[in-house]
Amino acid sequence: MTDELYHQVFACGCIRFGEFKLRSGLVSPFYVDLRVLISCPQTLRALGEEMAQLLKQLAPDRIAALPYAGLPIGVAASMASDIPLIYPRKEAKGYGTGRLIEGSFNPGERAVVVDDVITDGATKIEAIKPLEEAGLVVKDVVILLDREQGGDRVLARHGYTLHALMHLTPTLDALVRLGHITDEQRQAALRFVAEHQFS
Fold this sequence. Notes:
The protein is 41% helix and 25% strand. The chain is α/β, with parallel strands linked by helices and 199 residues long. The strands form two sheets. It has a six-stranded mixed beta sheet with strand order 5-4-3-6-7-8, sandwiched between helices. Strands 1-2 form a two-stranded antiparallel sheet.
C-alpha cells in the first residue's frame, strides 16, 4: 500500500477517530467504515486493483463477496482480476429461484471469501457455511483491513487463512506520517485493540 492510497482511504472517511460505541457496547477511540468506499469510486477502484493482485496469487475459481460491505469491494476486485464473482445471500429469496448463493458456480470450485474488515472472525465463519454446503471449497478469506484483534487466529482455528490488504498498525503509522492523526491517537487505538483480543 502506498501513502497515497492510505491518504485516499482516510480522506474518504473510512477510518475515523473520536469516541464510537460499537455493536458490542464497547466505546472505541476509532471506527472503521469501509462501506463509504461506494462514494469514492477512484479509491474503490485502486483498492480493487490492489486486492486483485492478492487474489491472483491465490488463484481461486470464484470470488465470494460477503454482503453488504464486501460486495462493492468484491465487484471492484472481480473486474480488476477477471475472476468471476458470487455472493451468499443473507436470506433465501422467497420467490424466483429461491437460491442462497447468487451467481454461477460449480460444486468443487475454489472460492475465496472477500469482505471489508475483520474483528473476531465470527461473521466470516458464519458466511462460509452456505458456500461449503453448496459444494464450494473455501480455504482463504481476503479483507481490506485487519483490526488486529485476533480474527486471524479465530479463522485459523477453523481451518481458514486470512489475507489482508491493510493491517491496523501500518495503517495507523501511515496516517501519523501523513499528518492525519496524532501519535496519541495512534497509541490509543493500539491500546484498545491490545485490550480487546479474540481467540
